[in-house]
């Protein structure tokens, strides 16, 4: 009878020759939990004790991750739309400048390199290099 009490204390119940689990030991903090617990009830632990609990946590994390992905995609799309609008405005401004002086040309930085446009760029070569450094630094941070 004494050995049964020791077994019960460690989460094993003996009934008519069959061993039965009555508790679960937490894999993180070694707290002995009730068998029906899905999460460890030790203060501050909340470790999942069952596969179902683990799947619940995993599903919640996946939904948070998908929400973040969607938010990033939406921000990227807005950024692309704004860039397209800015390019259109710059081209319109350039066309207006061409009407004033048809001999105007300029260099514009886009997608990693400078290219010649029909309007002059107000920046010096040193200022252009500084812009390139800034753009590269911004892209590395993202």
Q: Element order, helices and strands? A: HEEEEHEEH
How many extended strands? 6
**Major pleated sheet:** 2 strands, antiparallel
The rounded Rg comes to 33 Å
Strand content: 15-25%
Number of helices: 3
Quaternary assembly: single chain
Instruction: State the helical fraction.
Output: 40-55%
Instruction: Detail the poorly predicted runs.
Output: none
Number of domains: 3
Model description:
This protein is of the alpha+beta class and 142 residues long. The protein has 3 domains: 1-49, no CATH class; 51-99; 105-142, no CATH class. 53% of the residues lie in helices and 17% in strands. It is built from 3 helices and 6 strands, in the order αββββαββα. The chain has helices at residues 2-9, 51-100, 125-141, and strands at residues 12-15, 18-21, 23-25, 32-34, 106-110, 113-117. The protein has a two-stranded antiparallel ribbon. A hairpin with a 2-residue loop joins strand 5 and strand 6. The longest helix is centred in the middle third of the chain and has 50 residues, at 51-100.
Features:
142 residues, alpha+beta, 3 domains, two-stranded antiparallel sheet, 6 strands, 53% helix
Short description:
By secondary structure, the chain is an alpha+beta fold.
SSE inventory with pairings:
Layout: H1 2-9, E1 12-15, E2 18-21, E3 23-25, E4 32-34, H2 51-100, E5 106-110, E6 113-117, H3 125-141
Antiparallel strand pairs: 1-2, 3-4, 5-6
């Amino acid at each position: 009878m004494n050995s049964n009490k020791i077994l019960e204390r460690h989460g094993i119940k003996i009934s008519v020759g069959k061993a039965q689990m009555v508790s679960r030991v937490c894999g993180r903090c070694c707290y002995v939990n009730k068998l029906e617990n899905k999460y460890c009830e030790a203060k501050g632990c909340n470790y999942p004790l069952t596969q179902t609990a683990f799947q619940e946590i995993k599903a919640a994390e996946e939904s948070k991750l998908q929400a973040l992905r969607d938010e990033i995609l939406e921000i990227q799309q807005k950024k692309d739309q704004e860039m397209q609008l800015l390019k259109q405005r710059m081209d319109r401004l350039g066309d207006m400048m061409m009407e004033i002086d048809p001999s105007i040309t300029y260099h514009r930085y886009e997608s990693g390199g400078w290219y010649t446009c029909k309007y002059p760029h107000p920046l010096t070569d040193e200022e252009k290099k500084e812009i390139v450094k800034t753009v590269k630094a911004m892209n590395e941070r993202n």
